[in-house]
Amino acid sequence: LGSAPVIQLKDSANQVGAAYGTSNAATAKFITIENLAITGTSSLYNLVSLDSCNDVVFYRVNFQGSQAISASTSRDAQNAVYAKPTDPTKSIYNLRFVECTFDSVTQGVILNAYNVKILSCDFTTMSRAVWVDTTYSAAKTENIKIANSTFDSIGRSAIYVNAASATTRTNVLSVGNFFGTVGGGDGSPTSPVVAFNNGSGNMSVNDVF
Asked: Does the pLDDT of residue 186 top 70, yes or no?
């Protein structure tokens, strides 16, 4: 698809966008997507756009974009998954990405969400693979685990965490991941492979660089 996100959530009143979750409509929850290829051709739209929701699982999903590797810092592009609530008081939480592949997108997974696990996934050909940033939304953004995943052909940081201050709790854990050609260079990257810019509770444990 080239004219809208491939997957976008509706609330119980079939509302999307700025109206999502208003007028006492219930937001989406308890969704499982598995064994599916999600393909996009437009540089303007996310493959998956997540608004306020909870308990959403992606299992063995192939997120396939159409972008070349870049060093873009834009969030307004073809991202694999963009998780940001329209209303920051209505959070996104309990997301799971298990054995998924992310290929040829501008950014991989952009998160303003909490209690997120990215497990045994493969990221290739993009600018940033996992982007956690509290400065774009007041929504709760913390407790994110990325484990046993591979990152290759990443133009900037594979895991990029940006917070408003050093005391902002983010709790991002990278554990047991493999980083190949990441940061704009093989062996001499121009961007940090894993970047923790402010935030507290962030750790890299048993990662391979």
From this structure: no
